[in-house]
Design goal:
With 227 residues, the chain is α+β, with helices and mostly antiparallel strands. It has a 5-stranded antiparallel β-sheet, with helices on both faces. Helix 4 packs across helix 6. The longest helix has 21 residues. The radius of gyration is 25 Å and the shape is elongated.
Length: 227
C-alpha cells in the first residue's frame, strides 16, 4: 500500500507513448556510449518518476527513483514557453563534474507533457573513450558491406533514382547474373530495401529500367508469395 499521490493521471495512450520511449532508451544509450546518462521520467508519480535509465549509476539513480528539483524546474520552464522546446544547459554532478545536459518534453494525449527525457553528458570522460565508441574498430559496430551505402535524398523520386542507380551498377557488373535475369535481380534488391513501399515507385522503376510496370508487379508478387 502506498500513499503517493499521482501528479498526473495517465491515459492508456499516454502509457503506450512512455513505453515506446522506455524501449528506445537502452538503444540510444548503446549508440551514444558510456559518457551519457539517460533518465526517462513519467510524470504520473513524482516520488517514483524514473521508469527507464542508462548509466544511472553516475547519479546513483535507478528505476523508481524520484524526480529531481532541477527536472521540475526545467518542466516549469518548458510549460511556460509556448514553443515547448527542449532545454539544453550546463550542470554539475554531485561530485562537481561539469555536465552538458538536456531536458526533452514527452507529449501525450491532448498535447499534455507526460514525461521528460533527461540526458547528461559527463565531460570528465577521457575523449579517447568517446572516440572509440565511434571508431570502426569498435566491437559494438557491425561491419557494413562496402557496396551498400545510405542514400540521403531530398525527395522520393531522387531516393528511387539513387537506389536504382547504385543497385543497377552492382548487378550489371556481376558476371554471375545472366543478362536475362539482370532486371529481376535489380527488382529483388529494390524490394529487399523497401523501395516499393514508396508511392508510385513501381511506375518510376519500370520507366527507368525500360520495362513494363506489369513486369515489375509480377516480380513483386512472386517475392511476396515466397514470404
Amino acid at each position: 500500500m502506498t500513499n503517493d499521490k499521482p501528479y498526473l493521471k495517465l491515459t492508456a495512450a499516454d502509457r503506450a507513448i512512455l513505453q515506446s520511449y522506455a524501449a528506445m532508451v537502452p538503444n540510444l544509450g548503446e549508440y551514444l556510449g558510456e559518457g551519457y546518462e539517460i533518465i526517462l521520467h513519467s510524470l504520473e508519480n513524482l516520488q517514483h518518476s524514473v521508469i527507464q535509465n542508462v548509466n544511472g549509476h553516475y547519479s546513483g539513480r535507478a528505476n523508481g527513483a524520484p524526480i529531481t528539483d532541477l527536472a521540475l524546474s526545467m518542466l516549469s520552464k518548458i510549460e511556460q514557453d509556448k514553443s515547448h522546446a527542449n532545454i539544453c544547459y550546463m550542470n554539475r554532478s554531485k561530485s562537481g563534474v561539469p555536465l552538458r545536459s538536456s531536458t526533452i518534453p514527452i507529449f501525450g494525449e491532448n498535447n499534455r507533457i507526460i514525461g521528460l527525457l533527461c540526458i547528461n553528458f559527463y565531460t570528465d570522460l577521457p575523449f579517447s573513450s568517446v572516440l572509440k565508441k565511434f571508431s570502426f574498430d569498435s566491437s559494438t559496430i557491425q561491419p557494413v558491406s562496402p557496396e551498400i551505402r545510405e542514400n540521403f535524398a531530398e525527395n522520393a523520386d531522387e531516393l528511387i533514382e539513387m537506389s536504382l542507380a547504385e543497385i543497377k551498377k552492382t548487378i550489371m557488373n556481376d558476371l554471375s547474373v545472366s543478362s536475362q535475369n539482370k532486371n529481376k535481380e535489380i527488382i529483388i534488391e529494390l524490394y529487399s530495401r523497401g523501395i516499393f513501399n514508396i508511392k508510385d515507385s513501381v511506375i518510376k522503376v519500370a520507366a527507368l529500367l525500360g520495362i513494363s510496370k506489369n513486369t515489375v508487379y509480377m516480380h513483386i508478387r512472386n517475392l511476396k508469395s515466397k514470404e
